[in-house]
Amino acid sequence: MHAMVLHKGAPELRHEEVTLPPCGPHQIRLAVEACGVCRTDLHIIDAELTEPVLPLIPGHEIVGRIVELGPDVDGWAVGQRVGVPWLGRTCGHCTYCRAGRENLCDAPGFTGYTLNGGYAQECIADASYVFALSRDADPVALAPLLCAGLIGYRSYSMADDALRLGFYGFGAAAHILAQIATWQDREVYAFTQPGDHAAQRFARETGAIWAGGSDQSPDVLLDAAIIFAPVGALVPAAIQAVRKGGRVICAGIHMSDIPTFPYADLWQERQIMSVANLTRQDGEAFFPLAEKAAVKTRTTRYALKDANTALDDLRSGRLNGAAVLLP
Ligand SMILES: [Zn+2]
Ligand SMILES: [Zn+2]
Prior knowledge:
Layout: E1 2-5, E2 14-17, E3 27-37, H1 39-45, E4 62-69, E5 81-84, E6 87-89, H2 95-98, E7 109-110, E8 122-126, E9 131-132, H3 139-142, H4 148-158, E10 164-168, H5 172-183, E11 187-192, H6 197-205, E12 210-213, E13 222-227, H7 234-241, E14 242-250, H8 263-266, E15 271-274, H9 280-292, E16 299-303, H10 307-315, E17 322-326
Parallel strand pairs: 10-11, 10-13, 11-12, 13-14, 14-15, 16-17
Antiparallel strand pairs: 1-2, 3-4, 3-8, 3-17, 4-5, 5-9, 6-7
């Protein structure tokens, strides 16, 4: 089968013929139908995340159909459609796993980072970490839900019952969460790069009641802000935009350094927190919610062999919404 492969020291992915091993115990083999391109993939290829297992097939927003069941797989059948997320495996017995915080597992496996992912025609996944997906939906539309939606949702959950929500960076994750927030009668305030009117228009179209540059402010204070952009300078900006007791949630896996700011801006019990990975419970809550809220993702399709172009388009901010690869 064909895959896009990251090699040590290479600046780009290579289109190659790859043979996957047979399924091991508890594993399933999927024919990939679509795989989303996530900003984390860029951080891996650009070596900002430093521990990939190379050579590597990236991709952790995988929609596929089961074509083979390994030994000891229960509850799945050949032909079913499933989604494979970033969390590919956990140890099951560390302090975090036992406390229901498997997103922080001490010995995890991450799809498309330490385990081969979905920039390919086929992939192998642990059957215990995949999610059942609707057979009727368009696989391209589903792909961005697997990370932008799912880890975005974990960030969104950290905002508790915030009514006025700020999103900094309006791309794949924010456009999904804005639809859920609007469906839940919350107000979304979208902050984009200054002057990015296309992103601001996109934000309004997906439910934001206010959209402007990150150098602007709406005339209300926010209950919570989620930072999707990998830009540390947005943290002090967001902390000034939230009310007393408000929260700033950093949703990304990587961010540039956060500049210093006066303690007075944090005081009054404002909080800054980060979100890491996902739990399977997040998925069990998120996928039915996305269906109820009738989330529609905006996607741009690329052929698998054009993955480097898709990554460049994401890097340069030319995309509104999400890039999805078709095998
Ligand atoms: Zn663990
Ligand atoms: Zn991701």
